[in-house]
Sequence to fold (71 residues):
Amino acid sequence: MTTVANRRLHIVRARFDATLVTEPSRRRTFKVGEMLWWDTTQTSDPAVFEVDNLLFRADRQTLLQCIAIPT
Fold:
């Protein structure tokens, strides 16, 4: 299992879809209030983030619009 190196906890503030890195045909909808780990220094598109020890991919711009660092 590969994890995100410089990851930081984020909260979902708007629904979005992502695909599993190891099985791109598997999609998941992330809902408001869910938490995920993402490396804020990452510049790749699609962006890769971690939830429950699984890596997911999502369009970078969508991810940026749909998550926030919890206060």
